[in-house]
Amino acid sequence: MTCVFEVSPFDRGWCVKLCDTGEVLFFETGGQAEREARRLAATHPGGARVRVLDLRRQLAGEWSASVSPTAEPGVSTSEDPLAAPTLDDLARVVRRYPPG
Prior knowledge:
Elements: E1 3-10, E2 13-17, E3 24-27, H1 30-43, E4 48-53, E5 59-64, H2 87-96
Parallel strand pairs: 1-4
Antiparallel strand pairs: 1-2, 2-3, 4-5
């Protein structure tokens, strides 16, 4: 069975729920939590996925363990075709280009 590491908002930060034990790791930002979840998934024996929930707890993204946790955020390479920006990267774009 594929292991799922879930990243979600929690209290005043973000958390990663560990698939094997149900333990929870806490982080200040969603990007920190997502990077750790991707690292854990990449090193997990067997199949693993990362699910990221947004502030409304709706699915914002899902990645397989084939995503390299060492790739530069937002940079897709031939070795890492599924690389995607983290929540921190997206937040920087929103702050740089505020609406209205």
